[in-house]
Specification:
By secondary structure, the chain is of the alpha/beta class. It is built from 9 helices and 10 strands. The strands form 2 sheets. It has a 5-stranded mixed β-sheet, sandwiched between helices. A hairpin with a 2-residue loop joins strand 7 and strand 8. The two termini are 26 Å apart. Bound molecules: adenosine-5'-triphosphate and fe (iii) ion (FE). Adenosine-5'-triphosphate (ATP) binds next to helix 4 and helix 5. The site of fe (iii) ion has 5 residues, from helix 3.
């Protein structure tokens, strides 16, 4: 079957066409407008989605080389995300499904970040159940025990900031543009991760906390800049490496704990932060040191994209799990 999927939960407008488990197209229009504001401005995001949605869907169909009349179903991100953004994709998907008289499938964005691992890719070995998913993105930080496609249990999550926020807010303190995560990654590669030790937060169980780290980094930078106004410029690589090292340690510590508690040694990462080179390297190291088996998806399927929405749509299609015609977007939508 052919599924068209639409993703508009945050600041990327995306559409993908899937044929069974294979992606035929995955078009993403990122919104540059937010860079100037140092973060996503919801009002601007929804307007940009409205402008982008039709051209993006057009392109996705053209790239897949199919006509909309050949589609079997429309899948869309129902939540979680920004309400104004979700409304654009939801309304568009509903209208198109109604117009074409084909089923509509609602998808949870966080479930999609996890099931992205099941997109058919030549050189990629899919995880087997059960596995642990570490979802690290701009809005979420979760460890999920995945028992089957639709049986997932959140066993740990952040009690304040998400890990992507920790990267982006740290970058902002250093005067770097938004989103700063990839820049911290870039500078960290040239720096000494042990140059500046930051204390790790103490959080019970498998939960995370990143807001204390952000404050610690802020005071650390302020104090050093007082002594030497050129501190950031001189030590940027070392500061970034130290921040990244601390964040990775926090994540790996909790993963070790989760593996111990569940007995599951298979780990799949997802979400935009899984693009981070340090995290990727640490997981690979975990394979050697702790006997983990790790899964790192293709980069384009880690950040927000409609391909991951399409694969969930496909699994739901197989189960005849369709949305009601009065389905509405859901900004807070738990796994
Ligand atoms: P959610 O999926 O929770 O709704 P989101 O859609 O905003 O959040 P993603 O697009 O999955 O999040 O990820 C974006 C985040 O990933 C940003 O915080 C960005 O800084 C971070 N990020 C991307 N690449 C890297 C990298 N190489 N190193 C660290 N962080 C990165
Ligand atoms: Fe996301």
């Amino acid at each position: 079957c052919y599924i068209l999927a639409i993703e508009s939960s945050c600041d990327d407008t995306s559409a993908a066409v899937l044929y069974n488990e294979k992606i035929l197209s995955n078009v993403v229009a990122s919104q540059k407008i937010h860079e100037a504001y140092g973060g996503v401005v919801p009002e601007l995001a929804s307007r940009a989605h409205q402008q982008n949605i039709v051209p993006v869907v057009h392109q996705a169909l053209a790239k897949a080389n199919i006509d909309k009349k050949e589609l079997s179903a429309i899948a869309f991100t129902r939540g979680p995300g920004l309400m104004g953004s979700l409304l654009v994709g939801t309304s568009f998907a509903k209208s198109l499904a109604y117009g074409l008289n084909i089923p509509l499938i609602e998808v949870n964005h966080m479930q999609a970040h996890i099931l992205a691992h099941f997109i058919e890719e030549a050189e990629y070995e899919k995880p087997t159940f059960p596995f642990l998913a570490l979802t690290i993105s701009g809005g979420h930080t979760q460890i999920v025990k995945v028992k089957s496609y639709f049986d997932m249990e959140v066993i740990g999550e952040t009690i304040d900031d998400a890990v992507g926020e920790a990267f982006d807010k740290s970058a902002k303190i250093l005067g770097l543009p938004y989103p700063g995560g990839p820049l911290i990654d870039k500078y960290a590669q040239e720096g000494n991760p042990k140059a500046f030790p930051f204390t790790k937060p103490k959080v019970a169980g498998l939960n995370f906390s990143f807001s204390g780290l952000k404050t610690a980094i802020m005071y650390f930078v302020q104090n050093n800049v007082k002594e030497d106004p050129d501190f950031i410029e001189k030590s940027l690589n070392d500061i970034c490496a130290s921040i990244q090292y601390t964040i990775i340690n926090i994540l790996v510590d909790k993963l070790k704990k989760a593996v111990k508690e569940t007995g599951i040694k298979q780990i799949a990462i997802g979400g935009g932060v899984s693009a981070n080179s340090g995290i990727r390297a640490s997981l690979k190291e975990g394979e050697k040191r702790f006997g983990w088996k790790t899964h790192i998806p293709k980069f384009e399927y880690t950040t927000d994209n409609a391909a991951m929405i399409a694969i969930v749509g496909y699994f739901k299609y197989l189960e005849n799990d369709f949305a009601d015609e009065n389905v509405a977007a859901k900004a807070r939508y738990h796994l």
